[in-house]
Design brief:
Layout (H helix, E strand, L loop, with lengths): L4 H22 L9 H26 L1 H31 L4 H32 L3 H18 L10 H9 L12 E4 L2 E4 L1 H25 L5 H13 L1 H8 L9 H23 L10 H49 L6
Antiparallel strand pairs: 1-2
């Protein structure tokens, strides 16, 4: 796939225009909180933009590249749900006001997009020069899949080195000032906690890129498609955050589904590398099969999770009722008069 420099420039300009419109036009002059209804509307808009871009790839480059793009986008979008859990933890830890959450999330995602762009450029250069890098990427994905099955993703989010450095060297006020990243306190200009949260979100996303970038390279080695799929998945992440809200914890089987997807793509990468080295028994899995496996897995885990939700709710209610009855019984025993000898 040959992509002219002007196409890259036009794509980057379009992505930047959408982000700036969201940050400075749609939300900046709107004092309302980001409700679920608004989040659903703008999520559909972003998904629509991603689909239109994919149809453009289909029209100008053919169905094979379009399938690679859609496979990468669906994978990145599904993996981004894990990002939401981390974002929730970070926003709660820093007690970010609800009205400021949209702004800080968008700013953090801009940082994440820049860092991912660098990561994609390095990964693409490595893959084009060294076929054995496929083995490394495949091993990363398979190891990550085992970690998801074991529940390693449930560990508490820690501060990365960049965030620790920022908190140490940047004078920071102890209060928020609306959506401002810089304020004046005690007669001097200081950063607000919102700036620290933005750095936390942007740099923490790099940890997720360690598995999501190799995953999409398992579906396409075209840097243009890899970057575009990542960009569209990240741009709609803010709206997805407000849309899912409490729904994310109901997708109880999501981590198992993501583990299967990552493991499948990891095996695909290893088989592709073996195929490139002339191992004829190693099949090169076609993109249509990869896309079918990814979509089918996501549908299966979503249906299974939502189907089990009423049963889990009933179990929780029964457990709570039993606990209340036990507490009432203990209270009656304490209040009852002592028996006479």
């Amino acid at each position: 796939m040959s992509v002219a420099p002007w196409v890259w420039a036009l794509t980057l300009a379009g992505i930047l225009a959408v982000i700036l419109a969201d940050l400075f036009l749609i939300h900046r002059n709107d004092t309302r909180e980001f409700t679920t209804r608004r989040a659903a509307f703008w999520s559909s808009v972003y998904i629509g933009l991603a689909v239109v871009f994919g149809l453009g790839v289909w029209a100008f480059s053919g169905g094979e590249y379009a399938a690679q793009y859609f496979g990468g986008f669906v994978t990145e979008k599904s993996l981004s749900v894990d990002n939401l859990f981390v974002f929730m933890v970070l926003l709660a830890r820093f007690a970010v006001p609800k009205r400021s959450q949209h702004t800080v999330l968008m700013a953090g995602i801009i940082i994440a997009l820049v860092l991912r762009g660098i990561f994609i450029a390095v990964g693409a250069a490595a893959l084009s020069a060294f076929t054995w890098v496929f083995f490394i990427f495949g091993a990363i994905l398979i190891w990550t899949a085992f970690g998801l099955v074991r529940g390693d993703d449930d560990e508490e989010v820690g501060e990365n080195a960049i965030l620790r450095w920022a908190k140490r060297v940047i004078p920071t006020a102890d209060h928020y000032d609306g959506n401002k990243f810089v304020t004046r306190a005690n007669g001097r200009r200081m950063a607000t906690p919102l700036l620290i949260v933005m750095i936390a979100i942007g740099t923490t996303d790099v940890l997720f890129a360690l598995d999501s970038i190799p995953a999409i390279f398992g579906l396409t080695t075209e840097p243009y498609l890899v970057f575009a799929a990542n960009a569209f998945a990240l741009m709609g992440l803010v709206q997805l955050y407000f849309l899912l809200g409490g729904l994310a914890d109901k997708l109880k089987y999501l981590s198992h589904g993501l583990a299967f997807i990552l493991g499948f793509i990891g095996v695909k990468l290893v088989l592709h590398a073996l195929h490139e080295y002339g191992v004829h028994w190693a099949p090169d899995i076609p993109i249509w099969l990869s896309l079918s496996v990814i979509a089918g897995t996501l549908v299966a885990v979503t249906v299974a999770s939502l189907a089990s939700a009423p049963k889990d709710a009933a179990k929780d209610a029964a457990k709570k009722d039993a606990q209340v009855e036990g507490e009432e019984g203990d209270r009656e025993e304490r209040d009852a008069p002592a028996a006479l000898d």
